[in-house]
Amino acid sequence: MIDVANAETRQAGKPGLWAGLFAANMALIAVLSVTDALEHPVPPILIALNCVLLVPMVKAAMQRMEDKGAVTTAVRRYNRRFLGASLLYAVAMVGAGGATNYIAQGSPLMWVLAVLPMLPAFGMIWAMMRYLAEETDEYQRHRAVQASMVGLALVLVLGTGWGFLETFGLVPHIWAWWVFPAWAIGLGIGMAISEWRHGGSA
Amino acid sequence: MKNRLRVLRAERQWSQQDLADRLDVSRQSVNAIETGKYDPSLPLAFRIADVFALTIEDIFLRDPEEQAAQ
Amino acid sequence: MTDTWITRRGPGFWIGLIAALVAAVAVLAVSEAINSTTAIILMAGTGGLLFPLMRSGERCEERSGSSSPAIRRYNRGMLAASLAYILGMGIAVLLTNAMGLEGNILWLIAFLPVAPIFAMIWVMTRYIIDEEDEYLRHLAVMANMGGLALLMGLASLWGFFEEFELVSHAPGWLSVPVWALGMGLTRWWMTRSIRPEGDKQ
Question: HTH cro/C1-type domain location, by residue (chain B) (predicted)?
């Protein structure tokens, strides 16, 4: 009964679906690697591949923001930079992960391999800093800052909680780069809260 | 903060998008300012005043209690 | 004599001292010169220095006119949480090491130091919500963003080196001290050109 055009816009406007799928995959990878079902460096490669899901998610989110009239030039620029960095990250991670098998343990080449995926990861952080600097719409910048504070709170709560459970030997250790995905999830939650509190457009 | 943006827009027959374009901000931001959910900074408030060719006080209204206190 | 010398120190002195001690303990712990329990006790002990830091910080804020009711509430909340943390950590380490408690009770014990840190995060959140002075709130928000940037940068860097087994593992609770360090640095950077009016004469 729903006409096609309507169904299409609704489909495009479901970033939550992709985010959910992404989060579910992440959780699965985390569980598998914490229980040692996966050996290093398989988990980061899986995570990198999972990042491909972010492409349709960002597309859907952009469509929704476009509908609400919340897209600024700085947002568009940020999206391009961030997506570019994520794809580079995925490629570098898969490449570096595959190459570790051919390199002797402790060889200086390992440092090069470790740095390779790090550059796009820093690119993502840089893209966000550029966004805050370039956003001329103060209300949108205000919302971005608020959402990233929610991400920060999540990171600090998770880090402290997990860190101490780990210190007391209750849970296995996780790698330090968990901070970034955890923050990104918190950012998403923060965006959703602000959307819900401030509503869309009249 | 209360304001007369909606009335001023109606007088000029501008949509939120029209005002947003003139101010170089997003439509959502115009909506947030108009509904009093977000107070603009001084520079943006001046830009809004310039667009309507009015003063800031003609657009943004003091809180009644604050005014009474003075 | 020593007392006046101590009370005259600015917040920078205390921050520097705390940072140096924390860094020293971290280096010792990562290089495995001391075991993790010793590291935790030393880290917690360093927390005692927060008291003089707060006192000198408040004096400084009042002099430069950057104090507000929300800030005083924040300072009191942070100090209470820090002391609760030191106490909680001490009790937790005592219970596990000296009394050798094990099993499910450990989940409860681990909560002793976690709860005060959660309280600190909450105090910070309340502060940003409660602060009515928009410039001070802006400062706090920017300082938090600085803390976030430092935390993300360091964690990503460390994480990748760790993933490729080039450095040893860093515990998750380090995120709070790193965040605090980033906040302190950002705040200093943003306010470095602001001098109290009286200083010019």
Answer: 5-59
